[in-house]
Structure formats: structure tokens, C-alpha cells
Amino acid sequence: MALANLLLFFHVDVVVESLTVLLLLLPLLGAGRWAAAVRFGCIYVLLLVGTWASTLDDGGSWLHMLGLLCVGIRMMMPCLIAGIYAFTTTTASQFVCALRRMRIPETIVIPCVVCIRFFPTIHDDYHQIRDAMALRGIAQGTFALLRHPAQSLEYILMPLLMNATGAPRICP
User: Which of 47, 94, 109, 153 is the most buried (most CB within 10 A)?
Assistant: First the structure.
């Protein structure tokens, strides 16, 4: 994870970045997370193609925006892959034991464990919101939220934020 975070801060060559992504995909494959490894590999290849396509000069600004987006996400991919591997293969108790063995202060251990336990809660809340939306016939389908981004904010992000902050629910 330290290597992935260092790559994020220091601009390295695409070859080094690609080799690091390949190196980080190997533990996912070893852990039996074939689908996640293939998905991340395909996404990374698509981002490389998008970066290459943005270098073609046709005078369109949308191509430069595509390149900016592809490079930004591509630089975060090593961190995402390392994080997914760590979160899917390590339980909270294993993580606490590892941090305590490294003599990390409790003021750092406790917030880290809270974060680890927070992500599954957000995941469950998201699925409950999507089920409720499907029950009401709102934004059905995979790409419905991309077609209507304002509805996505209203119907998904706002309830997630309300649940995450523990704010009281307002019922009409």
C-alpha cells in the first residue's frame, strides 16, 4: 500500500506504473478474487487507451478532458487495487492486531478501524436505497443514474449522507 501511495504522489513513467498495477493485481488473483482482478485490469487498459487517444490532436477540447480524466483515474488505480485487496482479505480484528504489533498508537488504530467498519455499512445502505428506488420505480436500470445525475444526487447521495452523519430523518 505504501508503494501504491508513493506512485500517486510521484509522477512515474507509464511502464513503471503498468508494472506496479500488474504486481498489485497478483495478490488479488492469489486471494481468489479473479473477477475483481480482471475488472481492474480491464479498467486500467481502457484508461491507458483513453490516455493514448487523448494525445491524438484533432483540435477538440473534449479529447483533452478525456485525457485528464483518464490520467487522474489511472494514477489512483494502484491505490484502489491495494485498498480493495486489503479491505476484502483482512478483517477488522486482524487489522487491529497488525497495527498493535507495529506499536501504532491507539489514537491512530481506533480511527482506522472505524473507517474499515464504515465502508460495509455504506455499501449496505446503498443497496437498501437502490432496492427502495426499484420498489418505487425510480431510476431503474444500470445507466439510469448516469442519465439523470441530479436525481442520483437527490435519491442516493442525500440519504447516504443522512445515514452516515446520523442526522434525524425528516418524515413528511
Answer: 47
Q: Is 28 exposed, middle or buried (0-12, 13-18, 19+ CB in 10 A)?
A: buried
pLDDT for the residue 38: 93
Q: How far apart are CA 128 and CA 133, in angstroms?
A: 9
Q: Can you tell me the distance from the alpha carbon of 10 to that of 142, in angstroms, rounded to the nearest whole number?
A: 36
Q: How far apart are CA 32 and CA 171, in angstroms?
A: 44
Contact at 8 Å (CB) between 53 and 68? no
67: three-class secondary structure by DSSP: helix
Cell of 87: 479491505
Whole-angstrom Cα distance, residue 126 to residue 20? 31
Q: Residue 47, Cβ neighbours under 10 Å: how many?
A: 20
Q: Look at residue 171 in the predicted model and tell me its pLDDT.
A: 45
What is the percentage of the chain residues whose pLDDT exceeds 70? 91
Q: What average pLDDT is seen over the chain?
A: 83
- 107-152 confidence digits (pLDDT tens): 999 988 888 888 788 888 888 888 888 888 777 766 777 777 777 7
**Nearest Cα to Cα of residue 64 among 46, 76, 50, 47:** 50
Question: Alpha-carbon distance 25 to 21, whole Å?
Answer: 6
- Are residues 37 and 14 in contact, defined by beta-carbon separation less than 8 angstroms? no
